[in-house]
């Protein structure tokens, strides 16, 4: 049995790259939603910090999340992070206490 995994990722852009980062993250929504094991992939913008973007991702398993990070479109964005981000991504991994059956 696999355990459902939630990833909350906070990405803070350099001010001059906030819109660019948001557009790049939006471009990941459709292909990610089609990946095996993707149960939810929602992008948010912080109400108090327009440079901060938050991804709320739900995956069927850690293996599915790892496969997501290996996708060409994900890797293409990750290599741009040093130019786009003001600081390292903040990642929170959580296990749902009421996973879907």
Q: What would you say this structure looks like, in words?
A:
35% of the residues lie in helices and 30% in strands. The protein has four helices and four strands; from the N terminus they run E-H-E-E-H-H-H-E. Strand 2 and strand 3 (52-59) form a beta hairpin. The longest helix has 16 residues, at 18-33. The protein is globular and about 40 Å long.
Question: How is the topology of this model organized?
Answer:
Layout: E1 5-12, H1 18-33, E2 38-45, E3 52-59, H2 62-69, H3 72-78, H4 81-84, E4 90-95
Antiparallel strand pairs: 1-3, 1-4, 2-3
From the alpha carbons, calculate the radius of gyration and give it in angstroms: 14 Å
Q: How many strands, which pairing sense, and closed or not: the largest β-sheet? A: 4 strands, antiparallel
Please bin the fraction of helical residues. 25-40%
Strand content: 25-35%
How many beta-strand elements?
4
Q: Measure the end-to-end span.
A: 11 Å
